[in-house]
Design brief:
By secondary structure, this protein is of the alpha/beta class. The protein has one domain: Rossmann fold, CATH 3.40.50. The protein has eight helices and seven strands; from the N terminus they run H-E-H-E-H-E-H-E-E-H-H-E-H-E-H. The chain has helices at residues 2-27, 43-54, 71-77, 96-103, 147-150, 152-157, 176-186, 203-219; strands spanning 31-37, 60-66, 83-87, 113-117, 134-140, 160-164, 191-194. Strands 3-2-4-1-5-6-7 form a seven-stranded parallel sheet, with helices on both faces. Strand 6, helix 7 and strand 7 (191-194) form a beta-alpha-beta unit. The chain binds guanosine-5'-triphosphate (GTP) and magnesium ion. Magnesium ion binds at residues 43-44, 72, 117.
Amino acid sequence: MHEIRIGEDLRDRNREIAAENREHLRAHGIVALNLMSAPGAGKTSLLVRAIPLLSKRHAVGVIEGDIQTTTDAERVGAIGVPVYQIQTGGVCHLDAAMVHSALHRLDLESIDLLLIENVGNLVCPAEFDLGEDARVMLLSVSEGDDKPKKYPLMFHEAQLLVLNKIDLLPHVTFDLEKARRESREIQPRLDIIELSCATGEGLDRFADWIDRFVERARSR
Ligand SMILES: Nc1nc2c(ncn2[C@@H]2O[C@H](COP(=O)(O)OP(=O)(O)OP(=O)(O)O)[C@@H](O)[C@H]2O)c(=O)[nH]1
Ligand SMILES: [Mg+2]
């Protein structure tokens, strides 16, 4: 009973800080996306491949969340966009307070699209609102087509599902149609894009989705 109350207090406090982050971002005209997936599904690879396309139309900034190391921030920073690394020190997700402190360290005047790479985990990140405008979930075909049903919350909370590593389809057992169908059973409004960060196939569709999303978010 006591433990449940602590969990609820934490989540209430997180929601309050997330609302502050959302206001803070809106005040600076920044649209924010939260990228979530299991470890290794390709979040950093997608950032590295897509940011050069996105940078033609948006001023991109990145928050990198990792349990340890700064390797992802270094990979993304090498493209030349502002990056702030959060090392959670063992915590399995980003929370709104971590993003709040990152927002105070980034130059928000020079950004209009903020991409947040969450810690690799199919469970915990879905429970923490960061103040983002939308959640983008990645599922790579090497993880198995049963994941939507096994980890429904993350699929339910996402606006866009990226099915990544489609270059591996000839080598793995993954039923794309089943993954699409079962994801939409969980979230009927889910947009789905298939792509490969290795070959670049589908990256243009991802960049177009972001353009349309940013336009809609701005006109609200
Ligand atoms: N074949 C193939 N490999 C990919 C693709 N996308 C990413 N990878 C590889 O998958 C591995 C993990 O990719 P990352 O981009 O580091 O994945 P991540 O989701 O950022 O991982 P964490 O930050 O650890 O959660 C790397 O070895 C990538 O080169 C893809 O489309 N096809
Ligand atoms: Mg990464």
